[in-house]
Specification:
The chain is of the alpha/beta class. It has a single domain, classed as Rossmann fold. Helix content is 32%, strand content 19%. The chain has 8 helices and 9 strands. Strands 1, 2, 3, 4, 5, 6, 7, 8 and 9 form a 9-stranded mixed β-sheet that branches. Strand 4 and strand 5 form a beta hairpin. Helix 1 crosses helix 7.
Length: 280
């Protein structure tokens, strides 16, 4: 593991899960928003931050200065009846030097597409890819014995993580005190996903092939807080202001989730308005 800058010993451990973040992968405004959120929270010096995302084949390892973390690679992740080898790589955000860890497997991610191929076809193994990254995060955290107090997952592929954490991994000491935030981005698709992705959880009676809405519903059921990013604004100024407002409200939410007070509904107005929103 690369050496980290010295942090406040009482800092809250905050893990961000993303599917894209500037400058590594920028397919929509979400990538810049995630970078801005991470950077703004880091400035407060109140958090020890790590970021984890899949190492999509669209990411250029050489130009992004990404390299493998040998001691974290080689963990086998159970996906259905298969044992799939996990390769962990790392890069850093500039100028904050926040570490970004990438989850990789050649068979699942070394392709020049996000969740659709160059012809627009939804990958038939997306269910395996989603299961793999969600289980990989929890396994890596357990292996590191790094116990985040807040896990903020951004993007529909992470929607299963709160459910996994509170069911299959509920005995994990590392995850015992974690609070889960799920933010549903506006990326959308019309296809259904192979229902085996839910059968793998062994906790769901759902029989119909899951849709994007299914994932959002699961996240709302198991996460401590959910919200939805608005679609891109008509102007760059409007979108920039919207992101700034969201960042300030997330910072408030992080503080509320870690304060030793009785549970209450978050007071952040922008987040309250988003909580019941439907995905685009």
């Amino acid at each position: 593991m690369p050496k980290r800058n010295k942090k406040n010993s009482k800092a809250t451990k905050l893990l961000f899960l993303a599917t894209q973040i500037e400058p590594f992968l920028n397919l929509s405004s979400t990538a810049q928003f995630v970078k801005d959120l991470v950077s703004e929270v880091n400035v407060t010096q109140e958090y020890e931050i790590r970021v984890i995302m899949p190492k999509f084949g669209l990411i250029n390892e050489r130009t992004s200065s990404i390299h493998e973390v040998q001691r974290l690679s080689g963990i086998n992740i159970t996906v259905g009846n298969e044992e799939i080898s996990l390769v962990v790589k790392v890069g850093s955000l500039k100028p904050s030097k926040i570490q970004v860890y990438f989850l990789d497997n050649e068979c699942l991610f070394e392709r020049k597409g996000f969740f659709h191929d160059e012809k627009g076809n939804f990958y038939t193994d997306n269910h395996n890819r989603i299961t793999f990254i969600n289980k990989s995060v929890l396994s890596v955290l357990t292996y590191l014995r790094w116990n985040p107090q807040i896990i903020h997952a951004i993007g529909w592929p992470w929607a299963l993580l709160p459910m996994y954490a509170k069911n299959s991994y509920k005995s994990s000491v590392v995850l015992k005190k974690a609070k889960y935030i799920y933010t549903h981005e506006t990326y959308s698709f019309q296809e259904t996903i192979n229902p085996i992705v839910l059968q793998m959880t062994k906790e769901l009676p759902i029989k119909q092939p899951p849709t994007l809405e299914t994932f959002y519903t699961l996240a709302k059921t198991h996460a401590d807080h959910t919200s939805t990013l608005h679609p891109p604004a008509k102007s760059n100024h409007e979108e920039s202001q919207h992101h700034k407002d969201l960042i300030e409200n997330y910072k408030t939410l992080y503080q509320e989730l870690t304060q030793p007070k009785e549970p209450k509904t978050t007071s952040a107005p922008a987040l309250q308005s988003l909580e019941a929103a439907s995905p685009a």
